[in-house]
Design goal:
CATH architecture of the largest domain: Alpha-Beta Complex
Family: Belongs to the zinc-containing alcohol dehydrogenase family. Quinone oxidoreductase subfamily.
GO molecular function, one term: oxidoreductase activity
Structural class: alpha/beta
Protein name: Zinc-type alcohol dehydrogenase-like protein
Helix content: 25-40%
InterPro entries: ADH-like_C, ADH-like_N, ADH_Zn_typ-1, ER, GroES-like_sf, Lipid_raft_assoc_Zn_ADH, NAD(P)-bd_dom_sf, Quin_OxRdtase/zeta-crystal_CS
Largest sheet: 7 strands, mixed
Shape: globular
Strand content: 15-25%
Keywords: Metal-binding, Oxidoreductase, Zinc
Number of strands: 15
CATH topology of the largest domain: Quinone Oxidoreductase, Chain A, domain 1
Radius of gyration: 20 Å
């Protein structure tokens, strides 16, 4: 099978960053399904893993957002059969989706939305799982308690990114007041389109802007940007007994005692935790992607594709990584798969 990847970590400016090669086709066993990849998307995790690639001569295939067609199944598979059209974010400990064929555990995949083509479908799994788990698993927001949530608020830092774009929509569906950060005219327009009730500029003091919008504090904070840039202000803005979730890792040590007087809590969200540790509740990702597919098909969720970069090639993939590293991406960048 054809695959695109790298042997050596190089800067995104290097035209030889990625190469295409032939690899042996994998065979499904156990709970694995073998998927012919038809659409892929890129995420910040792609370039973070790329930058950390060990110089050990191995060929690394990146990519953790995909949609495709099941070609074969393992002997323990019960959820899918050959010919099913699926979507998933995969497992960071296994080869990625920048290839013609990929193995993925059935418990973290689901049937893709019928209304979407493969590239558009590939834009959603990783960000959907991340936003869903951040709010409904980590923050313990009851997404069915619409009346109770009407008076509650969430601040989403970097609302125009992939996770922010989905988080805004899910938070609105749960009945929350949504404040999203954005700074450029195009990103302000984007988060407004996604459903944000208020937009504030993350390049300006957040506290004063929140107060101007009528919020002394917020019940929840979802940080999809660099946590080091926002720790102190998030602790200041979160309400007593509120909750902060970050999807980015801290490079510096921070004072958690800032949360003590408020009895506020903090947690990380890493959507690969379930697959990485083979947790007993892995099937929850299958369930949430199944529910999201139904929401998409019912036109309750907007697709978050920002740009379609055409066919997946070493050069188009390098250009996508460059956009992501610049911090200027809006929504998700998608491709047709190598096997499309």
């Amino acid at each position: 099978m054809k695959a695109i990847g790298l042997k050596v970590a190089r800067p995104v400016s290097d035209e030889n960053l990625f190469e295409q090669t032939e690899l042996d086709a994998p065979k499904p066993e156990g709970h694995d399904i073998l998927v012919r990849v038809k659409g892929v998307a890129v995420n910040p995790v792609d370039f973070k893993v790329r930058r950390g690639k060990a110089d050990d001569g191995t060929f690394k295939v990146l990519g953790w957002d995909a949609a495709g067609i099941v070609e074969a199944v393992g002997d323990k598979v019960t959820l899918f059969g050959k010919g099913d059209e699926v979507w998933y974010a995969g497992d960071i400990t296994r080869p990625g989706s920048n290839s013609e064929l990929q193995l993925v555990d059935e418990r973290i995949a689901a049937l893709k939305p019928k209304k979407l083509d493969f590239a558009a479908a590939a834009a959603l799994p990783l960000t959907t799982i991340t936003a869903w788990e951040a709010m409904f698993d980590r923050m313990k927001i009851d997404r069915t308690a619409l009346e109770a949530n009407q008076g509650k608020s969430i601040l989403i830092i970097n609302g125009a990114g992939g996770v922010g774009s989905i988080a805004i929509q899910l938070a609105k569906m749960a009945g929350l007041q949504v404040i999203a950060t954005a700074s450029r005219p195009e990103t302000i327009s984007w988060v407004t389109k996604m459903g944000a009730d208020h937009v504030i500029n993350h390049h300006q003091p957040l506290k004063e802007q929140l107060e101007g919008a009528g919020f002394a504090t917020v019940d929840y904070v979802l940080c999809t940007s660099e946590i080091d840039d926002y720790w102190d202000v998030m602790c200041d803005l979160v309400a007593p007994q509120g909750h902060i979730v970050s999807i980015t890792e801290a490079k510096n040590n921070h004072n958690v005692d800032l949360l003590k007087a408020k009895s506020a809590s903090f947690s990380y969200e890493f959507m690969f935790t379930r697959s990485m540790f083979q947790t007993p509740d892995m099937i929850e990702q299958h369930k949430l992607l199944t529910e999201m597919a139904a929401l998409v098909d019912a036109d309750a969720i907007q697709v978050t594709t920002g740009d379609h970069f055409g066919a997946l090639t070493p050069e188009s993939l390098r250009k996508a990584h460059a956009v992501l590293e610049s911090g200027k991406a809006i929504g998700k960048i998608v491709f047709d798969g190598l096997g499309a």
